Amino acid sequence: MKNIKENYIHIDNDFYYIIEDILNNKEFQKLKEIKHHGITRYNHLLRVAYHTYKFTKKHNLKYVEATRGALLHDFFFDETSKDSTYKALKTHATYALQNSCKHFELTELEKDIIKTHMFPVEFKKPHYKESYIVDIVDDISSLYERSYSIRESVLRAFTFLFVFLTVRMR
User: Fold this and answer.
1) Cα 51–52–53 angle (5° rounding)?
2) CA distance linking residue 44 with residue 32, whole number of Å
3) Contacts of 24 (CB under 8 A, 6+ apart)
4) What is the pLDDT of residues 3-42, one digit of tens each?
5) Percent of the chain scoring above 70 in pLDDT
6) H or E stretch including 39?
7) What distance in Å separates the CA atoms of residue 2 and residue 148, rounded to the nearest whole number?
8) Residue 104 carries which DSSP code?
9) Rounded Cα distance, 34 and 158, in Å
10) Which end of the chain has fewer CB atoms at under 10 Å, N or C?
11) Using CA atoms, how far apart are residues 119 and 12, in angstroms rounded to an integer?
12) Do residues 132 and 167 lie in contact, with contact meaning Cβ atoms separated by under 8 Å?
């Protein structure tokens, strides 16, 4: 727990207990060695999970499942290394879902978060509010981490926000 608190000073114990089993998984620990969005994939996932946790808990949504799904949304290794950038964007969610199912028991919501976090790049539309939230938090985190071009990240973030608000207003 100390290592997490060093990275995220304001993390409360509830957040840690929700994700403790994932963080202690040997395969998940390997993500500390993989660069992703200019930082490690491990740190990217932790950032997305933490901000998802704060938002979904504040808005009385299914924050436990949303947090766990967010932490696993990019749980892949080098499966996409031979793919073009665009193809990797479209396929990595499938690999993340396969790895997550292999190591953890997932709910339908958690699976939906992982497999739809690249909507609309990958045309798998989210089925839950929490899935849209993780998608948006991931885009904003990616923008902050400056891996994607700013223009692409801003466009995706606004697209997801528009879709999320449209779906919510129905």
Assistant:
1) 90
2) 10
3) none
4) 554 455 456 789 999 999 999 999 999 999 887 666 788 9
5) 69
6) strand 39-40
7) 31
8) S
9) 28
10) C
11) 30
12) yes
Structure-model confidence comparison of residues 92 and 112, the more confident one? 112
For the chain, first and last CA: distance in Å?
41
Task: Give the chain's length.
Answer: 170
- Which of 145, 147, 110, 115 is CA-nearest to residue 130? 110
pTM summary value:
0.78
99: its two tokens? 């790895």
Whether 49 contacts 16, CB under 8 Å: no
> Of 150, 157, 154, 153, which is closest to residue 134 (Cα–Cα)?
157
Distance (Å, whole) CA 117 – CA 135: 5
Contact assessment for residue 89 and residue 156, using Cβ atoms and an 8 Å cutoff:
no
Q: Six-digit token pair at 133?
A: 């939230």
List CB contacts of 133: < 8 A, sequence separation 6 or more: 52, 55, 56, 61, 66, 164
pLDDT: which is higher, 86 or 20: 20
Residue whose entry in the numeric block shows the structure tokens 């499938």: 94
